[in-house]
Here is the input.
Amino acid sequence: MRNLLNVVITGAASLGPGPRPCPGQREETMTSHREHGEDVGIPLAPGVHRWLPGATEAGAEAALRRAASEGRRATALDLTAVVDKETFLAECARALDLPGWFGGTWDSLYDCLIDLSWWGTPRGYLIVARGWHALERNAPGLTGTPAGIAEDATAHWLSRATPMTVLLG
Here is the structure.
């Protein structure tokens, strides 16, 4: 039996409090599940979601496994060492295996996120951004642009009926 755990989901561009589902998102997708004693604690609905600070690393791993089992391409960014735009974009290039034409700019990151052809044709995408909360505290001026890019990219894929989920944690 599944125990539903409430998860606060916010729009990444505003990063304000309160739930805000993606367009077309059903109400039940705003919860997460505890399955087989494993605290998932993280939503997989399309869109950009904040991973609550109390969610566990095991929950992130479970979300990545669950997405992969659903046929999605799932990957994680490690933002714990990010201190500026350059290190953020370098981590994106590494973790997302960005192609050679990635130009190391915000615009080229967006272009890559709406292409993803080098990832084949999965049933969707999951990107877990670990260290997001620390990045907000340590470099608050840095997070607005990539959060907006993530929202635009998830909207792009939603319009093509391919779910993209970005978890900011």
